[in-house]
Amino acid sequence: MTSTDHEPAAPPRIRTFHPRRGRMTSRQLDALERLWPTYGLTVPEAPGVPIDPAELFGRRAPLVLEIGSGMGDATAAMAADDPDRDYLAVEVHTPGIANLLDLVGRQGLTNVRIAEGDALDLVRMLPAGSLDAVHVFFPDPWPKTRHHKRRLIQPTHVALLRSRLAPGGTLHCATDWAEYAESMRRTLTDDPELVNAHPGWAPRPAHRPVTKFERRARTAGREIFDLVYHRAVAGTGG
Ligand SMILES: C[S@@+](CC[C@H](N)C(=O)[O-])C[C@H]1O[C@@H](n2cnc3c(N)ncnc32)[C@H](O)[C@@H]1O
């Protein structure tokens, strides 16, 4: 008998995503095969070796974490417009990862890396205070009340994200789901170390590219909500 025999089983993990399959185009398959070894990293499910961003990118630069990069269009566009910062995208959907690799390859971007796996596991592997910004654009809204526990923006996840932000660093969320937006605002405002950069919703920032999700929402007449919060700088009250 081992010492673990009497330990209660760990509760099942509550995921913020639905595992989904998806067919890849030949272009995406090709990008995955050629570019994954250079730009990709796998997020282990068990606690992994800490990530050294300077080693990952081969330089020391402000780091932006893009959670749930989807098909990667926004990540590639922002990274191309912002060469002095590095972009670490994390996604679970393989065709989206492959699509971003293809964009990175075609545009010759050197400031993008792509992690495959759960963003929350990846964040735990990053050093405290290592992020200049975290982007959570159009996270799955999980609209049913019984699924709210799957949402990315909830107090424990926000505390984890905030711990990896540098003082003054930015947490930027966007959603087209009004009720989730209200819940995000409450959660972010209640966090003891986050400060809203605006009196309420943030104006739509020009640097956030329009993706399929925003286009669809606009076509359906839904409003888009941006929330921009900064991690307080000690001694300045924010
Ligand atoms: C609605 S899509 C939005 C994609 C993209 N941000 C955009 O605006 O086009 C949300 C994405 O988040 C990903 N996702 C959800 N939870 C995640 C997690 N814990 N780690 C990594 N990706 C996640 C999903 O796979 C999905 O592709």
TrEMBL record:
Q: Which organism is it from?
A: Micromonospora rosaria
Q: Family per UniProt?
A: Belongs to the class I-like SAM-binding methyltransferase superfamily. TrmB family.
Q: Which domain of life is it from?
A: Bacteria
Supply the alphabetized keyword list.
Methyltransferase, S-adenosyl-L-methionine, Transferase, tRNA processing
Q: Which Gene3D superfamilies match?
A: Vaccinia Virus protein VP39
In its UniProt record, a GO molecular function of this protein is:
tRNA (guanine(46)-N7)-methyltransferase activity
Name this protein carries in UniProt: tRNA (guanine-N(7)-)-methyltransferase
Spell out the SUPFAM superfamilies in the cross-references: S-adenosyl-L-methionine-dependent methyltransferases (SSF53335)
Pathway field of the UniProt record reads: tRNA modification; N(7)-methylguanine-tRNA biosynthesis
Signal peptide coordinates: none
Q: What is its EC number?
A: 2.1.1.33
A single GO cellular-component term on record: tRNA methyltransferase complex
Its recorded reaction(s) are: guanosine(46) in tRNA + S-adenosyl-L-methionine = N(7)-methylguanosine(46) in tRNA + S-adenosyl-L-homocysteine
Q: Which residues bind substrate?
A: K144, D176, T211, K212, F213, E214
Q: Where does S-adenosyl-L-methionine bind?
A: E66, E91, D118, D140
Q: In the UniProt record, what gene is named as encoding this protein?
A: trmB
Chain segments annotated as coiled-coil in the UniProt record: none
Q: What does this protein do?
A: Catalyzes the formation of N(7)-methylguanine at position 46 (m7G46) in tRNA.
